[in-house]
Structures are given as C-alpha cells and as structure tokens.
Design brief:
The chain is mainly β. The chain has no helices and eleven strands. The strands form two sheets. Strands 2, 4, 5, 6, 9, 10 and 11 form a seven-stranded mixed β-sheet that branches.
C-alpha cells in the first residue's frame, strides 16, 4: 500500500514549463506502475502518461506526446511529470496514481492544480 502526494502545480502561461512530483510513502514503490491523470472542470478524468514498474516503459496520451515526459526515481519513491510547451487545454487537476505490478490503479493522490493562461 502506498500514499501519494503531488506537488509542483501552479499558474503558467502558454509555452511555459512545469515539473510535477508525486512522492510515495509505503513499501515496494518499485513494484507500482505509476501514472499521471488530469481532470478539467466539467470533464472526465483522462490519462496523461504512465511508467511501468518492471522495465520503466512509458506511454503518453496523444495530446501530450513530445511535450511531457514522465520519469521515476525509485530510490526516492518519486515519479515526475516534466511538462513543456504548456497550452491552455492542459489546465486541470493533475493526479498521480499507483497500480501494483501494473494492475488496476488503486491508489491516488489528492491532485495538484495546473492552470495555463493564453
């Protein structure tokens, strides 16, 4: 079981960069596939990126490919989301999720707000 806490959100202008962090407490962080999701007002939660627990493989939503990079430091129990070339449509609450050995996402943080102005 892990507890997740996101940080790094804030206000940005279009074209800016932000780096989000998700710190995990608990055991066996390396056994969790970690993902970033986001939810804009009035919209469903959507997948942004994830990084697998076994080989560190990454995947991205088409809308962020080439602009966002997910990474993890197992020694620090932390996963990051480097966001560049931010757009107003990237605005939302960004949530970190954990999926034990790549199963269903069963652990979530509270989220961090990202607001991008044009």
């Amino acid at each position: 079981q892990v507890q997740l806490v996101e940080s790094g959100g804030g206000l940005a202008q279009a074209g800016d960069s932000l780096r989000l962090s998700c710190a995990a407490s608990g055991r066996n962080f390396a056994l969790y596939t970690m993902g970033w999701f986001r939810q804009a007002p009035g919209k469903d939660r959507e997948f942004v990126a994830d990084i697998s627990w076994r080989a560190g493989r990454t995947s991205y939503a088409d809308s962020v490919k080439g602009r966002f990079t997910i990474s993890r430091e197992n020694a620090k129990n932390t996963v990051y989301l480097q966001m560049t070339g931010l757009k107003p449509e990237d605005t939302g609450v960004y949530l970190c999720g954990g999926a034990y050995t790549g199963g269903a996402y069963g652990y979530w943080g509270q989220g961090t707000q990202v607001t991008v102005s044009s």
